[in-house]
Amino acid sequence: MRVLMVQTPSVETFTSEKVYPIGIVLLAGVLKKKGHQVEILDLNLDHDPYGVLQEKLLEFRPEVVGFSLRNIDPLGNKNTSLIPQFTAAVRLTALLLPEALLIAGGTGFSLFPERIMQELSELDYGIVGEGEHSFPALLESLGYPVQLPGLCYREGEEVRLLPPSTDIDMACYLPPDRTLWDIKPYLDLNNYTPSIGIETKRGCPFNCSYCVYPQLQGRHLRRRSAADVVDEVEFLHKEYGVKQFHFNDPVINIPRGHLEGICREILKRKLKIRWDGFFREDHLDAENIALFEEAGCECFSFSPDGLCQEALDVLGKQETEDDILKAARLAASRDVLSVYHFMVNVPGENQRTIEKGVQMLERIYDLHAPKRNLGTIVLNNIRIMPGTRIEKIAREEGVITPDTDLLYPVYFNPRPYDTLRYRLESFHFCKNVFMWKGVDDK
């Protein structure tokens, strides 16, 4: 079967940071081993993505087109959506190749599978969650009823969804076959974010009130061995000259010992590479943070999200203010940049929590000022996602109603603190400029 795997637009503009599409490349490799003829297209790489799509469809004439929707809207509190771009890709394909089978998947699709299938009648099927088993099984069972994990399908006028799989054995993980889609256009492509991602595990055991990772990957941590991870890193480094990597895990430094083992393996092989990932603050200590830096960590990305204890509690972070400040103190002592992500105007925000939040920002800047190694602080409102506790709170507080369509950008940002993010950004921006310019604002 001729199958075209399409990464639909996942960034707002052509100049935005882009990443290598490991999801569709991984699936393409699985399908190829099953005997299918597979080609790949990433619509993020061209100024005229739909012209490139049209050309590829008419040239290759696929019988099946798989669309990966990586994210539903750009990051950073932008009230724009990537659904229109996804819709255009699906409908253009349906018009050009009306006989082709159209299947959707990807993280963004997995958040709103039934809603997107209802919106786009052109889609024949969807795959929610992990598709390594379900996608090829679907192609093998076309024409008769199937019961596959994560399958989204039509039954008359209704859209049905079967429970997704979160049990792929990562000990048997086969890395994406990069020979199927050239890695070179992604090298040195971004200014801030490494474009080459590596999975070291799947799953997240935490219960943050706004987060969908446990829905998408399950709560059980499924790990690759340190040697297996570094085999992939070493291959990409030596074969393609990749020097920077991003570890894609929801949290890179859990469970204790896993990232440490990967770092020791990197050092053992004397690989001169750089990497980053999102760290859990309460799992850092002086010993492992030194190991991470020695093994090539170039940025400690923290996402404590709560600026004070009250916010941490309502967000379900299971951390304390002291955990955040301890991690900041450890990170500030290293010769590596740090980035912090916080959410503002969370449920229960008041003047006292705002004052404590400002104090937290000041403390972080004070810790990083001597070495000037604070990259930035990112301040966001909470994007309300379906099935989260924040959605429930938002309904209870009247921030959203039963009719609110969460497919498009909706943030938890009620009055009277709906401008708080901008005020805190002004404070942070000034502090950042003063720190880097060596100006004392005390």
Description of the molecule:
With 442 residues, the protein is α/β, with parallel strands linked by helices. 36% of the residues lie in helices and 17% in strands. The chain has 15 helices and 17 strands. The chain has helices at residues 22-33, 49-60, 83-96, 107-111, 113-119, 134-140, 213-217, 226-240, 258-268, 286-294, 309-314, 321-332, 351-368, 389-396, 420-437, and strands spanning 2-7, 37-42, 64-68, 101-105, 125-127, 151-155, 158-161, 197-198, 201-202, 222-223, 244-247, 274-279, 297-305, 337-343, 374-380, 382-383, 411-412. A seven-stranded mixed β-sheet has the order 2-1-3-4-5-6-7, with helices on both faces. It has a six-stranded parallel β-sheet with strand order 8-11-12-13-14-15. The longest helix is centred in the C-terminal third of the chain and has 18 residues, at 351-368. The protein is globular and about 70 Å long. The termini are far apart. The relative contact order is 0.09. The mean pLDDT is 95.
